[in-house]
Amino acid sequence: MRLVAMAGVILASVLFSLTAWSTTVEPDRTMKETKKEKNSFSLTTTDVKATVGATANTWVHVTPGKGYKWNLEYPAKLTIAGVPSHVKLAKTIFKQLKGDFKATEKKASVKVAMVGTSAGTETLTGKLKLSVCDANVCHIEKADVKFTVTIAP
After folding, report:
1. Residue 17 region by backbone torsions, left for phi larger than 0, else alpha for psi between -120 and 50, else beta
2. C-alpha torsion angle, residues 115, 118, 122, 124 (rounded to 10)
3. In the prediction, which pLDDT does 38 show?
4. Is 120 left (phi over 0), alpha (psi -120 to 50) or beta?
5. How far is CA 32 from CA 24, 69, 137, in A?
6. What per-residue confidence (pLDDT) applies to 9?
7. Which string of DSSP letters, residue by residue, matches 68-97?
8. Domains identified in the chain and CATH numbers
9. pTM for the whole structure
10. Where are the beta strands (DSSP E) in the chain?
11. Residue 12's CB: how many other CB atoms inside 10 A?
12. What are 14-40's pLDDT values in tens digits?
């Protein structure tokens, strides 16, 4: 009986030490959470002024911040949302790996072509998914894109 009690105490001690050990294990340092950094890139667009029936373009430009470079291997993608009222877009989805981006490590640009269909002004919006890299890691980023289109008769 004494042997059983002693075995129970030893088992309880082992289980307690295993539980304590499992709660103090260090996290895996190779898994790094990427947080959006304010200075990792800047995005600029140009507004469009055209007439009905005329072809017009806007550009979406991304410039990596200091210490960053554009990731030429990432499948960056620009998607223009919705159906515009005053223009017909040549396309609404632009993909870097399909050749829609003009890109170097210092800058990436996307030309959004359109034709004016009716007079008026509207704001077009979209989402850009991109990647910029610093010396240690590449960051996947998302950005809202917005530009104004004014079509005269």
Report:
1. alpha
2. -30
3. 58
4. left
5. 19, 19, 9
6. 44
7. -EE-TTS--EEEE-S--SSEEES-SEEEGG
8. 41-152 (2.60.40.10)
9. 0.74
10. 41-45, 48-51, 55-64, 69-70, 77-80, 87-89, 93-95, 101-103, 108-116, 120-133, 138-152
11. 10
12. 444 433 333 333 333 222 223 334 589
**Which token pair is 6?**
């002693």
Could you identify the residue written with the tokens 């399909």?
Answer: 98
CB-CB contact of 61 with 44 (8 Å): yes
Q: What is the pLDDT of residues 41-99, one digit of tens each?
A: 999 999 999 999 999 999 999 999 999 999 999 999 999 999 999 999 999 999 999 99
Residue written as token pair 């947080």: 35
